[in-house]
Amino acid sequence: MIGRFFYHYLMGMGDGNVQSLVLSGALLALSGIFLMSGFLAELISVNRMLLEEIRVRQLQLELDSRGSPTMFRKVTSEGAATPNQVKTAS
Are 70 and 63 in contact (CB under 8 A)? Predict the structure, then answer.
C-alpha cells in the first residue's frame, strides 16, 4: 500500500491516496508490535525452562542434603518402596 501511494504521488496524483499511506503505516506499526510480542513470548518460554531446571536442581540438592539418595521414591501397590527398591535419579 505504501508502494501504491508513492506510485500515485510520483505520477502527480497522490492527493487522493493518503488513506493508503495511513493504512500502510498502521499495518506496519501493528506488524512491529506482533514481532516484538513474538520475541517476548520466546524469551519468556526460555526463561520458564531455565527456572524449571534450576528448581529441579535445587530440589535434588535439598533432598541430597537430607540424606535421601534420590529425588523420587517408587511407590508400589504394596505401599512405599524399601530403600533397596529406590529408583536412582539420573
Answer: yes
Enter the pTM of the model: 0.53
Write phi, then psi, for 70 (nearest 5 degrees). Answer: -135, 170
Within 13 Å, how many C-alpha atoms sit on residue 48's CB side? 6
Distance, in Å, from the CA atom of 63 to the CA atom of 29, rounded to the nearest integer, reads: 51
What b/e string do you get for 40-66 counting C-beta neighbours within 10 Å, with b at 16 or more?
eeeeeeeeeeeeeeeeeeeeeeebeee
Give me the count of residues in the chain. 90
The pLDDT mean for the chain works out to: 78
Q: Domain boundaries in the chain? A: 2-85
